[in-house]
Amino acid sequence: xxxxxxxxxxxxxxxxxxxxxxxxxxxxxxxxxxxxxxxxxxxxxxxxxxxxxxxxxxxxxxxxxxxxxxxxxxxxxxxxxxxxxxxxxxxxxxxxxxxxxxxxxxxxxxxxxxxxxxxxxxxxxxxxxxxxxxxxxxxxxxxxxxxxxxxxxx
Length: 154
What we know:
mainly alpha; 88% helix; 0% strand; elongated
């Protein structure tokens, strides 16, 4: 009975991880890409906070439930489709970590610009470009994980 419960939790956390990431990316693109200093300074921290909480909690749930299900089913974790899924999961995480740091820097720059009533510095636009770029391999990796989970060879 434990396996179906783990599977349900795994699917739900995967949905939250990917859906929350897509939502945060779209909202972040709208807010951070608006170049409106006050909007970014006020809304940006909330986007970063919610995305961080959702991502960390759902990623932990993915790791715990995935590992537990693999051990119950007797799947070798680092081989086959599961090994590739773990590689993609690491790629997504390695893109997400600097992405969150970039978001924090963009918010900080906007707060300073808002306090001094100045324009966004050139570095802000470079950070936004890098943040957008990191979203591409991260999203591709997550899509790849879903593909592997659905079309896995058992």
